[in-house]
């Protein structure tokens, strides 16, 4: 959150001087999202900034009028959040930096580390759509690998069981998908991957599992990247309430 505020501050949006923040963080507990969304709508905020497709859906069910600006949504069209990238429609917009070639690049990177790689596990959140896991499975098969999707579920994800399943299926590497429960439990995932000596690729948003400074820098960039979108909804000259 500090990096997010810093990015907006660089664009002239200073907390207490024209903008006020209302923070809600589910920390992987997806069942809390509808409650948080209703609270924010009842507060009469001017804009809601969200992370992830599952959060967008929860907020969109609570309001069709308050602007919703998203980040970390892999495929907004495939997830049913936007009609098109040029004209998303409704009250939802945002920025996606996902490249469909990303999954292939990650797998190729793992193969550099382990040239004989054939079996790759894909760690996914059962509470989200299959969009990202499907993309990664397709990329693995195209590289003649055998993908194994392992799903965990909030509110009590059993990562010990997930890694035991990977070992039983003789997984040789792991891709951690950028999904809510994995984000909340990224440190545990990193510890287990090290304990099982499993080569693992994390998304950039989870780099604090091994490099907090780099994550903080990315969070700051997120505020800067979304600033123009916020500005289009929030005219300057009066205090506005922004949720995140």
Can you give a write-up of this model?
This protein has nine helices and ten strands. It is of the alpha/beta class and 244 residues long. The chain folds into two domains: 2-98 and 211-243, Rossmann fold (3-Layer(aba) Sandwich); 102-209, Response regulator (Rossmann fold, 3-Layer(aba) Sandwich). The strands form two sheets. Strands 1-2-10-3-4-5 form a six-stranded parallel β-sheet, sandwiched between helices. A four-stranded parallel β-sheet has the order 7-6-8-9, sandwiched between helices. Strand 3, helix 3 (53-62) and strand 4 (68-71) form a beta-alpha-beta unit. Helix 1 (2-10) packs across helix 9 and helix 2 (33-42) packs across helix 3. The model is unreliable at 211-221 and 228-242 (pLDDT under 50).
* Rg calc: 19 Å
What sort of overall outline do the alpha carbons produce when their principal axes are compared? elongated
Helix and strand pattern = HEEHEHEEHEHEHEHHEHE
Spatial strand arrangement across the major sheet: 1-2-10-3-4-5
Share in helix = 40-55%
Low-pLDDT parts are 211-221, 228-242
Q: Say which CATH homologous superfamily of the largest domain is assigned.
A: Response regulator
CATH topology of the largest domain: Rossmann fold
Q: From the 3D coordinates, which CATH architecture of the largest domain would you assign? A: 3-Layer(aba) Sandwich
What count of helical segments does DSSP give?
9
Q: Structural class, judged by helices and strands? A: alpha/beta
- Measured between the Cα atoms of the first and last residue, the distance is 8 Å
Oligomer: single chain
Number of strands: 10
Total individual domains = 2
Specify the CATH class of the largest domain: Alpha Beta
Largest sheet features: 6 strands, parallel
Q: What proportion of the residues form beta strands (DSSP E)? A: 15-25%
Mean pLDDT: 82
